[in-house]
Design goal:
Transposase InsH N-terminal domain-containing protein; Transposase_InsH_N; mainly alpha; 81 residues; 2 helices
Length: 81
């Protein structure tokens, strides 16, 4: 499937830390990531098909992570996300 590929969180950057190391162990984003990875998105009703013209789509799992994080931070508007 042709979705937009995100950055690997374990890849080292110019500085000696990676993005995954900058989060604390008990951060809510780790919980959200584990939750979204544990569910089957296709059987939950998420559409995994894409149209092959135009810009690639975002992966439905990434969008679900973003919306859940917005609810954790009391951001209900897509503009603020």
């Amino acid at each position: 499937m042709k979705f937009i590929q995100g950055t690997d969180r374990t890849q080292l950057a110019l500085f000696p830390t990676c993005l995954d190391d900058s989060l604390e162990f008990d951060n809510e984003t780790r919980l959200i990531d584990l939750f979204v990875n544990s569910i089957d998105l296709t059987s939950s009703g998420f559409d995994m098909d894409f149209i092959d013209n135009g810009r690639p789509a975002y992966h439905p799992g990434d969008l679900l992570r973003l919306f859940i994080y917005g609810y954790f931070c009391y951001l209900w508007s897509g503009t603020f996300l």
